[in-house]
Design brief:
This protein is an alpha/beta fold and 324 residues long. It is built from nine helices and 13 strands. Helix 2 (53-68) packs across helix 3 (92-100) and helix 6 (216-237) packs parallel to helix 7. The two termini are 20 Å apart. The relative contact order is 0.19. The structure holds coenzyme A.
């Protein structure tokens, strides 16, 4: 008998404030045209004053539980992917546990920046396969608006806030790629590229939370190459090929990265879920947001083969192949 971690529900939350590209024209030397042409981004959501990462994560988790028809107190574990937690500790996942009443669940944060949701999914899969948990909430939630330098046009226009969540549950499979659930994962890190994408503050250095710094064009180069490679590696591990893919659900950083990666993976853009125009880059929240929106749009159906892939600061990158 093979155990699989199967998706039972999905949900998301976006803060109510929508920030169109034009708002940045008053802050830095940029234009709506430049942002659309170079990134595909048209607007993003920013959290309200006082609205935290765990607030948004809890709303997304409740939506996913409602979609699954599963009660919060039957959840065994909560994994929250975030680089923008409410406090240095405790983990924002523990605040979600309290807010949604998931009293039986152990809860912790996963920090792999924009690859965080892929890393959290792979870890949740491992917890389910090892029998340590049967039902897991896997959440991605970020308030990147709080770590942006609004004088740096190369970064402040790119990011947004939001949250998305999945409910995973252990189920019996046949051990073949026809099974529903997570079929393969591939995780990678190269810590030599820290200078390309980092936050210039932290607890044990400056004692501040710092601001995001990025060499965008260098990150771009790594992204296209590494995302296609990890996508192929995960498909190989699942004994599948690009031809089997129904949807790529990529990290939503830049439409040009998404398109170039799809081309390298030989998957047409009609099979790619794209939400970057509406959300910007929401870091660890972007994949679960795209999964939730993709399902709500009627794109993703039960039985579809999905590849999710992401890269971020570290550099860390990875992919998960799953049948919805
Ligand atoms: N508006 C107008 N001009 C801008 C700008 C903005 N918002 N941001 C950067 N520019 C300028 C640069 O200053 C530079 O000007 P210069 O030639 O006078 O020095 C010019 O555009 C080209 O810069 P470059 O960084 O080479 O542009 P690019 O085509 O690579 O696009 C990014 C910049 C940031 C959009 C792009 O590199 C990118 O998306 N990189 C990946 C970022 C990412 O996804 N990171 C997260 C991964 S998780």
């Amino acid at each position: 008998m093979t155990i699989r971690a199967v998706v039972r529900g999905v949900g998301h939350y976006l803060p109510s404030r929508v920030v169109p590209n034009a708002e940045f024209e008053a802050l830095v030397d940029t234009s709506d045209d430049w942002i659309r042409a170079r990134t595909g981004i048209e607007r993003r959501h920013f959290a309200a004053e006082g609205e935290t990462t765990s607030d948004m994560a809890a709303r997304a988790a409740e939506a996913a539980l409602a979609d699954a028809g599963i009660a919060a107190d039957s959840i065994d574990a909560i994994l929250l992917a975030t680089s923008t937690p409410d406090l240095t500790f405790p983990a924002a996942a523990t605040m979600v546990q309290r807010k949604i009443g998931a009293s039986r669940a152990f809860a912790f944060d996963v920090q792999a920046v924009c690859a965080g949701f892929v890393f959290a999914l792979a870890n949740a899969d491992a917890l389910i396969l090892s029998g340590q948990a049967r039902r897991i909430l896997v959440i991605g939630a970020e308030t990147f608006s709080r770590i942006l330098d609004f004088t740096d046009r190369g970064t402040c226009v790119l990011f947004g806030d939001g949250a998305g969540a999945l409910v995973l549950e252990a189920a019996e499979g046949t051990g073949t790629p026809a099974d529903r659930g997570i079929l393969a994962t591939d995780l990678n890190t190269d810590g030599t590229h820290q200078d390309l994408l980092y936050v210039d503050g932290g607890v044990s250095t400056t004692g501040t939370s710092g601001q995001l710094r990025m060499q965008g064009n260098q990150v771009f180069r790594h992204a296209v190459e590494k995302l296609a490679a990890t996508g192929h590696a995960a498909l190989d591990r699942a004994q599948l090929t690009s031809a089997d893919v129904d949807w790529i659900v990529p990290h939503q950083a830049n439409l040009r990265i998404i398109a170039a990666t799809a081309q390298r993976m030989q998957v047409p853009m009609e099979k790619v879920v794209v939400t970057v125009q509406d959300h910007g880059n929401t870091s660890a929240a972007s994949i679960p947001l795209a999964l939730s929106v993709g399902k709500a749009r009627g794109q993703i159906h039960e039985g579809d083969l999905l590849v999710t892939e992401a890269i971020g600061g570290g550099l860390s990158w990875g992919a998960v192949v799953l049948r919805w």
